[in-house]
Design a protein that fits this description.
The protein is built from 6 helices and no strands. With 206 residues, it is mainly α. Helix 3 crosses helix 4. It is globular and about 55 Å long.
Length: 206
C-alpha cells in the first residue's frame, strides 16, 4: 500500500512538472527545493486522502460501490468528448483517409482513458481539449482547477458519509468519526498547499 501511494504521488508530481513545461513552450523546468517540497506535500496529502477514502468506500459497500466508481470515472472520460461535440470541431486536417481517421480516433480514446484514470485519483494538472490541435490546453485555467477540486471534495465527503452511516463494517472497528475528520482535513490541507504553490511558489513567478 505504501509503495502504491508513493508511486502515485511520484507520478502526480511528474504530471505537475510536465504541465508547467507544456505551458512554458516545453522549456526545461527545474523546481527549487522549497517548490518541490510544497508540490510533494500537496500531492501526497491529496493522493493519501483520496486513496484511503476510495478504500473505505469500497470495503464498506463492496460490489455496491462499483456503479459509483464507474460514474466518477466516466465523467472526466466523457467531458472532453462532449466539449469536442459541442464546439462543432473536426478531426485534424491530416486525416485524409479512413485509416488515418481510425488511428486518430483510437489515439484520442487512449489519451482520454489515461486522462480519466489520472483524474480518478488526483488532479491531472492539465485540461484536455480535443478540439485543439495541441490537445493540451496551455493556459492556466483556475475555473477547471476549481471545478475539479470542488467535485472531488464533494465526492470524498459523500463516500466518507456513506461508508460511515450506510455502508457495512469498515476496515477499523473504532474511531470512525476521527478517521472521517482526518480524511476531510487532509484533503483541505492538500488544497491549501496547492494554492500556496500556485500563488507564490510557481516557477512562472521566478
Amino acid at each position: 500500500m505504501t509503495c502504491s501511494l508513493l508511486s502515485v504521488t511520484y507520478g502526480a508530481i511528474h504530471c505537475n512538472i510536465l504541465a508547467i513545461q507544456i505551458s512554458n513552450d516545453d522549456t526545461t523546468i527545474k523546481l527549487q527545493p522549497i517548490e518541490f517540497i510544497c508540490v510533494m506535500i500537496w500531492r501526497f496529502l491529496e493522493v493519501v486522502s483520496r486513496v484511503v477514502t476510495l478504500a473505505f468506500f469500497a470495503a464498506s459497500l463492496k460490489l455496491k460501490s462499483l456503479p459509483f466508481f464507474l460514474i466518477i470515472y466516466c465523467v472526466p472520460l466523457l467531458a472532453p468528448w462532449l466539449e469536442f461535440w459541442k464546439s462543432g470541431a473536426h478531426l485534424p486536417n491530416n486525416t485524409e483517409n479512413s485509416s488515418n481517421v481510425v488511428g486518430t480516433v483510437l489515439m484520442l480514446i487512449l489519451i482520454t482513458l489515461l486522462y480519466a484514470a489520472i483524474n480518478f485519483s488526483c488532479w491531472s494538472a492539465v485540461k484536455l481539449q480535443l478540439s485543439d490541435e495541441e490537445i493540451i490546453d496551455r493556459r492556466q485555467r483556475w475555473g477547471h482547477r476549481f471545478l475539479h477540486y470542488s467535485c472531488q471534495f464533494l465526492e470524498n465527503v459523500i463516500m466518507i458519509l456513506v461508508s460511515r452511516f450506510i455502508g457495512g463494517k469498515t476496515l477499523l472497528n473504532c474511531c470512525d468519526s476521527l478517521i472521517v475528520m482526518q480524511l476531510i482535513i487532509t484533503y483541505l490541507l492538500a488544497i491549501g498547499f496547492m494554492l500556496l504553490f500556485c500563488q507564490y511558489l510557481h516557477p512562472r513567478w521566478s
